[in-house]
Structures are given as structure tokens and as C-alpha cells.
């Protein structure tokens, strides 16, 4: 057998449950491990389990129709749902699809081949969608979070810090001398530098740090629970060790030792700095101040004193 699918079947009718099990048993290409819940409430006992798909009868003792779908979607938010019903209600089927279920089958029209194909296609489609969503949030070169993913995380953490009156620090990071690598050795060499630099930065992160590549040689680190100037500067100094050793670049059978620096600008949330854009802008200003004053250093953005 090439596949094994784990399925939760939410079905109160024992005859329909056993007929479905018999239909799937005729599929000789894969095995189906099926758990059964006879109601929405009973299904809630299985939320800690991982299922490849859910077969849902929408007419249940404690729920009916669209409400059954919404309850299961809420309990299993990342599991494809296939609606099975004996009602033959096309309007309900259309509503189910609009709510985001993977498929809709009438029990009277269901055959073993149709059911197994429906399950397989639903799972494959769901996995593909998840993969595409992950790809949209990952920088393909460094495998770090990209700008879109980071902005979502920054907004979430900043909202939390404002609500609970904590602070966070944002580091804008730029590699010094990176453009010369691209100009002299080419973009393939530059890509190697970015990949090695990303790995080194990740090795120096705390568990709560959030690292992303914004584009080019620009990176950003969100440091949670580091709200005062001294601890922010100390944490940033530890990140500077990522460029302490030269990068080893392999090009055309030769090894190139490349020594680069990094400029870091830090901005701490609080006061007038209460939005993601403001936090990024202030950290960016601090980073460019380092660039102007000799590079390979750290600068902390100083907010103007608040008016009395």
C-alpha cells in the first residue's frame, strides 16, 4: 500500500458509517484509519488528533446543516472537510463549498471509487494550498520569513506589547560591503553570502527573536522582552558576531575569503512609536546613521522628549 489516510467520520447513522467503511475497504491502493464521532460534541473529543480529512454528515443529533460545518471548521481549522449527506440538497452543497469545504457528496450517488478519489484529491489540494501559502511567506533564498510574513508578526507582537504595556526592540540590519561582492564576483557569490549570513544570524537568536529578510542585503530582527536601551544594545552586539569571521565563497573552483561588516539600527517601541511603520522607519534611520558614520556598528534611535 502506497498511502495511509487518517480520517474522522462524524456520522450518527451506524448503517451509513459501516457502508462508508466497506466502500473505502475496496480501495486496494491505500489504507484508511477511521475514527468515528456520533455528534459535534463527540467530535470535540478528537481535536488533539491529527486527521488528513473529515467526513461530515451535516444532519446530527446536536447540529444540522450549515451550523454543523461551522462547528467542525472551528474545531479543526486546518483539516479538509468532505460533506456527506442523504438529503440531496444542492443548495446546501453550494453553501458548503462557499464556506470552504473540500467537497460535497450525496450518499445516494456515492460509489467506492468516487469516494476514494474525492478523499485523495481533497487531501492533495489541501496540501498544495498549504505549501503555496508557506511559499508566499518564506524568502526562497535564505528560507527566512519574508517581508509579508514579518509584517504580520510585527503587527501582532506590537499590538500585544501596547495592550500589556511592555516594550520590544526592532533591529534593522544591513551588510556592509555586500554590493562589492555582487559587482566583483557576481550574484551567485552574493547569494552564498546571504545564505551563510542568515545561518549565522539564526545561530545567535534567542528563542523569542523573530528574524526576516526584507530584501537584498537588508534583514530585520524583532527582539521581544528587550525593552530598555542597555539590554537592546547588548543583544545587538551579540548579533554582530555573525560577521566576525570571513565568509568562504566557492566560485569556479576557487575559494574566496570575504570579510564584511554589518550596520544595525535599533528602535524601541513606546511613546509616539506605536505602529509597525513607525518602528521600521525609526530603526531604518538609526541604521543609516551608522552607515554615514563609518559602518560596522550599532546605533539606537533616540526619540525626542515628550512635551510636558
Automatic annotation (TrEMBL):
Q: Which SMART domains match?
A: GGDEF, REC
Domain Response regulatory span(s) in chain numbering: 6-122
- List of residues that carry 4-aspartylphosphate: 57
Q: Which Pfam family would be a valid example here? A: GGDEF
Task: Name the coenzymes or cofactors required.
Answer: Mg(2+)
Q: Supply the CDD domains for this chain.
A: GGDEF, REC
GGDEF domain location: 166-303
* Keywords for this protein: Phosphoprotein
Q: Name one GO biological process term.
A: phosphorelay signal transduction system
The record's NCBIfam families line, in alphabetical order, gives:
GGDEF
- Name of the featured protein: Predicted signal transduction protein containing a membrane domain, an EAL and a GGDEF domain
Amino acid at each position: 500500500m502506497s498511502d495511509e489516510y487518517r480520517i474522522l467520520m462524524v456520522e450518527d447513522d451506524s448503517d451509513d458509517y459501516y457502508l462508508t467503511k466497506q466502500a473505502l475497504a475496496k480501495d486496494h491502493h491505500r489504507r484508511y484509519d477511521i475514527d468515528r464521532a456520533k455528534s459535534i460534541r463527540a467530535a470535540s473529543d478528537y481535536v488533539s488528533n491529527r486527521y488528513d480529512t473529515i467526513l461530515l454528515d451535516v444532519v446530527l443529533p446536536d447540529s444540522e446543516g450549515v451550523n454543523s460545518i461551522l462547528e467542525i471548521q472551528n474545531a479543526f481549522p486546518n483539516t479538509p472537510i468532505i460533506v456527506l449527506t442523504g438529503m440531496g440538497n444542492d443548495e446546501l452543497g453550494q453553501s458548503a463549498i462557499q464556506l470552504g469545504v473540500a467537497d460535497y457528496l450525496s450518499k445516494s450517488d456515492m460509489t467506492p471509487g468516487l469516494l476514494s478519489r474525492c478523499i485523495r484529491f481533497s487531501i492533495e489540494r489541501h496540501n498544495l494550498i498549504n505549501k503555496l501559502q508557506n511559499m508566499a511567506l518564506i524568502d526562497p533564498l535564505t528560507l527566512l520569513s519574508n517581508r509579508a510574513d514579518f509584517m504580520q508578526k510585527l503587527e501582532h507582537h506590537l499590538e500585544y506589547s501596547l495592550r500589556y504595556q511592555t516594550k520590544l526592540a526592532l533591529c534593522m540590519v544591513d551588510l556592509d560591503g555586500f554590493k562589492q561582492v555582487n559587482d566583483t564576483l557576481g550574484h551567485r557569490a552574493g547569494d552564498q553570502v546571504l545564505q551563510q549570513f542568515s545561518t549565522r544570524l539564526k545561530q545567535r537568536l534567542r528563542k523569542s527573536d523573530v528574524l526576516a529578510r526584507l530584501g537584498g542585503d537588508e534583514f530585520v530582527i524583532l527582539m521581544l522582552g528587550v525593552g530598555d536601551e542597555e539590554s537592546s544594545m547588548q543583544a545587538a552586539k551579540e548579533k554582530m558576531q555573525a560577521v566576525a569571521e570571513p565568509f568562504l565563497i566557492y566560485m569556479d573552483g576557487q575559494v574566496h575569503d570575504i570579510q564584511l561588516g554589518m550596520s544595525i539600527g535599533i528602535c524601541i517601541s513606546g511613546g509616539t512609536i506605536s505602529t509597525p511603520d513607525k518602528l521600521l522607519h525609526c530603526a531604518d534611520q538609526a541604521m543609516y546613521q551608522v552607515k554615514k558614520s563609518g559602518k560596522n556598528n550599532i546605533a539606537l534611535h533616540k526619540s525626542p522628549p515628550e512635551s510636558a
